[in-house]
Amino acid sequence: MTALMGPSGAGKSTLLDLIANRKSAGKLSGTITFDNVPFHTPLQRTPSQNTTFARRVAYVKQDDLHIGSLTVRETLTFAARLRLDDSFSPSDIDASVDSVIDMLNLSKVVDSVVGDSFNKGISGGQLKRLSIGVEAISFPSLIFLDEPTSGLDSAIALEVMTSVRKLVEGGRRTVVCTIHQPSDKVFGLFDNLLLLSAGRNIYAGPVKSAARYFTSIGYTYANPNNLNPADFIISVAGGLPFSFSGKVTKTGSLTLPLADGDKDKSFGWSSVVRSPKTLAALFKSTLRLDIDDPQSLPNPPNPPTPQFYGVLKRTKCLISRGLLANTRNKPYLRAQILKNLIVGILSGVIFFQAGKMDSPVWDVAENFPTPSGYNVVSIMYFALLYSITGNLQAIPLLFQSKLLFERERASGAYTTVSHWMAESVVHVPLIIATHFLFSNLTYWLVGLPPSLPTYTYMFVATLLVNLTSFSFSQLLSTLSPSPSVALALFPITFMFLSNFSGFTILLSNVPTLWSWAPYISFPRWAYEGLVVQAMRDKQPPEYMILLEYFGFGDWESQNSLLILGPYMVGVSLCVLWASLPRRSRLEVMEGGEEEEEEEEEEAEEVGNQNLNLSTPLLDETFDQKDLPLGDPAGRQGSWGVKDFKRSSSEASAQNDNDDQTVDVTFSEISYAVKVKNGSNGDDNFLSILNGINGRLPSSTLTALMGASGAGKSTLLDLLAGRKKKDKNTLMGGSVLFNGAPRSRSMEQKSAYVTQDNVHLESLTVGQTIAFAAELRMENSTKEKRTARCSLIASLLGLTSHLATPVGSPSSRGISGGQLKRLSIAVEIVNLPSVIFLDEPTTGLDSAIAFEVMAAVRNLADEGKRTVVATIHQPSPATFELFDNLILLGEGRTLYAGPRSMAVKWFATPPLNYSFDSNKMGANEADFVVSVAGGYEEPKLNVLSLAKEWAKSDVNVEFLDGLEEVVRGDVERAAEEQAKRNNIALVKRGKYPTSMIKQMRTLARRQMLKTIQNLKPIKASILRHVVVALFYGGIYNNLEPTDLLERSSLCFFTCMFVVMGHQQNIPVVFEERLLFYRERAAKVYGDFSYFITGGVAIFPLTVINCGVFSATLYFMTGFRKDLSSFLFFFLMVSCVSACGLFYCQLLAVLSPNVQAAITLFPATLFFFISFAGYIIFIPSLPEWLSDWAPSISFVRWGFQGLMINEFKDNAKIFPPYTITHHQVTTQEQYENFAETYGFENYDKWFSFPVLVMNMLVFRVLTFFALRHFKYEKR
Asked: Which class for 962: exposed (0-12), middle (13-18), buried (19 or more C-beta within 10 A)?
């Protein structure tokens, strides 16, 4: 069992990916062997070797990816059926599952659902063990784990890694694991250590020899009995200029009180600090085995022959798993059924009895279908549109399935073909069921022929369109890197396919350049068959004229089915092709000899030097220039000695004049949430916290700890005022700040650093801090804000990264430690008096975690601030930084007092716990958490521990003197206020800055965020240009008689600019997290965010519409005058803005992206249906036509474009004389407009109506922001 360790950015995960054959890009040199068989590089391996490797190797990713609706046993059973070969019988599979459940201690939750972000399931530790179990179910020879303990407390982390150790000992397996902040017990489970720094190997060997090796080259492991060797090793690799040796004394501004008997223990500082390159050279000089010499390797055994994994068997298993997951996904099922029910009823009401086709269906005078004939062909087209767009919401779901598939395929669980066949089947039942609901509602309500052959044909034809459209969604999801990209591509493919169906542009009018397009448009074949089938029994010649008008005169409807079936199969085969693993872009490099020679020379040079083996205490004369303060690429820790030696006067001098110290006292804090009783369905309340008491003195750093589920984050939220009482919660107790309840002034003097790092990825570190200062600092000048930002950046070690973009998982930015420090910087830029931090060290190695908490320690000391933090797995050095400890267990107080006295308390009778401080790597933090979790002997339960603390002298004395303490806090606060020049308390507003300044700052931040991320802007402009060229090509130089084509172009212009905004829905959700965080911090209010929400997107929308209009308009044969073009641009921009604001409204109303994208097509069809294109407004029922078209913003945009093009256009309606009567252009236009229901309107009437729609959507968005809050705390 090998630990792969190093500071953040050392290359641990990269090396793990390379060894595990999971890297497909970059440059690689070196040799990899498997069972002593040289594999050279993943690129040079044969398919047989790769197959063998994948099936004998397990890779447990850091993120736990499972199907949330399955139980633990079901998850493991399906994993076993997929990964074990065909020789295993069902009983063997059950035995394997039981063995893994027992080995990983999952028997208590075996029938519990796994859960996901929306449904509560098993705990974090159980989830991690399940991830290990899924990969280990085939009992592989080699197991890789990427940071399996991140986010877990020390006790749960020990549980997880002990389970892994069982896998090693039970089957003689090899385990390689990257790990952050392992406790001494966890670290002791490993046999070997591979230590990296800045991409170089600085140690590889037994775990027990690592500390001895580094002391042999000049580092001092001052007191091994009180220091976890893992922390010492990480400090060396991270370039930190010290090795820890116990308690902390005064070092610069770092001062902590020491308990009696601890005076002789101190930090041991060492001047021995070497670069990663030097350490790598030193280590290489000690190697005795030339690993590059193949002759030194033992003879390799014959490689195992991989067994054939039955494709059909795996496919059947995947189908079973998929169907089970789909049937349990109740929210998705309800959404699909409700959507089809709504749209089916809506279409039935709109086209009610319009399918009877009362004669006449053709207007000979106008040479155009009558409303009766037009309505029938519109019904068919509407059914096609919905069948195509109805699968839009499946894209996010398909992406989630794709991630799981890629992970399981990489593990050799099954092939791409199995996944493709299963995905082609599992979604079909739901598609058929919902399509049956929609088609039946529509068919009978609209009054189509009551003929079984016609009904059957239309059901089958539209079902094939639905299934083909779903395959297109699968294809887009497979080809796209993210759901946003797939959603952006969808409107383009939709427009292309639907425009060549024969309805929007007649087949006879398709330009020669695009004559091929109708043949590859599957909606064309379906639409042609549907129209022909609907009129097959009609005898009058006018029906044949209607069919010939659309180009369907010689078509047999059954031919459409013969084309649609193979077409669907063809698209599905394209999905298979797109799902195949991509060719690796990993480039194999030769050599590296020059660098090796340099390292050997450096090793020889270093070896000839006299190594300083002493450990002098750091003093003021220490030469800082000899210390590396961080790698330029940000791969090493950037913490320097100067950051630990800041003068407290330096920070204090820049504090706000009205800063004051704050003591927080809380008593009888209780909290409960409403839950359903499984037996009778009644509501009960589940207690989370029970009567918690405590005090947070100023100038102190308090740790809030406990086992998983103890209530730490809940207590922190209550203290910070982040929990609000509602009908589903019960809250009790009081929280006092300087003896008074939380006031508006105190809210602004408090900061809350959340566990998740939420920032705008395109902004730099400096810009992020600067905008935080503008929003949080009250009555400040630019000079003061600049100085404050410099101070905070220096205090938190971010000065050298101010110009670095924050970045995201998909774009490189700052490191994890720097990101966490940035989160702290943003919240404390106004130097608050009270700081709350929720797990600030999660995901960081011990060295970076110490950096972060040392910075927090400085904040408490230099500004006399009150700081409290929940924390997992702190190293001894990090734990030493805390003054006080509040330990919780199942919502009860187990200890609350000085951190240094916690171990002593649990050792006193009648508790009688034993802690051996002389044991190697002994960690008090791990000990107290283990006690709280029931992992330490004598393993007293939480109730017993809580009762002992409740009757302890310390707790009784605290409760008895609580009133006096509060009274003292009030008096001290009053004295402090009087000392500040006798200035009375300033009455503060609700927010630190005025609303005008909030909106100005937020608008600038939005604009800067958009400008600095040009890739989406370029993609958006390119999309509009491409679609404009497409429309310009198929509607090029329209003839005056092309009335339908001109109408279609106006309508689909509106459709495109509206549907293009669906990609903004995920963007709103990304920014919503930042809004929730800043609103909770009382930085600004709903109205400021609401006003500036579209400030950057709206100008881009106008630019896109301008590019689209300028590219399209003059290609189509529309009116050539400038005023008509400008009005066209105005209408397009207004409709697009309405679509943008409507999508933002849906995103704010919805709890998640999936729900918003499901709502979008269903609600959009309402606006489309009443636009006047699919069905003429006069054809609507009178009770519906009076109001429904008026609230459709698409109708007003379409109407404005139509009037702009047709009214007073003598080229389209030239005057002519009939029986001595001259028919004027105006008369012809009025007859034409009356057909659509646009008569008696001027084109400018649409503009104020569209503006009114924009305002309505914005106002609704504001109210949704105020009243729909989906933040889960």
From this structure: middle
